[in-house]
């Protein structure tokens, strides 16, 4: 049995792909203010939250447990609305040798529909560690929380 794998999920959103991409590429520090499962984040290294050399420290809940890790961007592709992040350190390193997340904001054929696709590439430290399905669930919930927040903002702006 291989210890490496790749899993993904697509989450439909009510706001635009552009708005969600903007949050993750330019306003990442706001996620902790609207996502229930993110308890805190801070800039650990670097001067800017959104450059490849910055490192963020996250505290979050997965599978009912409060965990911590570090995250850094590997690449940001504005044209394809795609961000690749490396997740490492602390609780991640206890279970995974490799943990890479790809976030992609996708516009569908109908302009009023869009989705977010999360992909996790991972390598577990042993066969006793389960694939990170709980992380996909957490990312799904984070998108739902942010999407709800953006929709409420838009409704408020339209009044």
Give an overview in words:
- The structure is a single chain.
- The chain is globular, with a radius of gyration of 16 Å.
- It has 4 helices and 7 strands.
- Strands 1-7-6-5-4-3-2 form a 7-stranded antiparallel sheet.
- The mean pLDDT is 92.
- The longest helix has 25 residues, at 133-157.
- The protein has one domain (13-157): START domain (Alpha-D-Glucose-1,6-Bisphosphate, Chain A, domain 4, 2-Layer Sandwich), CATH 3.30.530.20.
- It has 159 residues and is α+β, with helices and mostly antiparallel strands.
- A hairpin with a 6-residue loop joins strand 6 (96-107) and strand 7 (114-124).
- The chain has helices at 17-26, 31-34, 90-95, 133-157, and strands at residues 4-13, 38-45, 55-62, 65-77, 82-88, 96-107, 114-124.
């Amino acid at each position: 049995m291989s210890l490496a794998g790749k899993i993904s999920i697509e989450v439909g959103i009510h706001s635009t792909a552009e708005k969600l991409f903007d949050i993750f590429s330019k306003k990442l520090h706001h996620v902790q203010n609207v996502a229930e499962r993110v308890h805190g984040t801070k800039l650990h290294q670097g001067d800017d939250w959104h450059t490849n050399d910055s490192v963020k420290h996250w505290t979050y809940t997965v599978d009912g447990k409060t965990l911590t890790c570090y995250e850094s961007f590997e690449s940001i592709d504005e044209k394809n609305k795609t961000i690749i992040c490396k997740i490492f350190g602390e609780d991640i390193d206890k279970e995974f040798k490799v943990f890479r997340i790809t976030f992609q904001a996708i516009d569908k054929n109908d302009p009023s529909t869009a989705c977010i696709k999360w992909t996790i590439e991972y390598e577990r430290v042993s066969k006793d560690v389960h694939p990170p399905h709980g992380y996909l669930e957490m990312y799904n919930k984070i998108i739902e929380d942010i999407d709800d927040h953006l929709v409420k903002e838009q409704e408020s702006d339209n009044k």
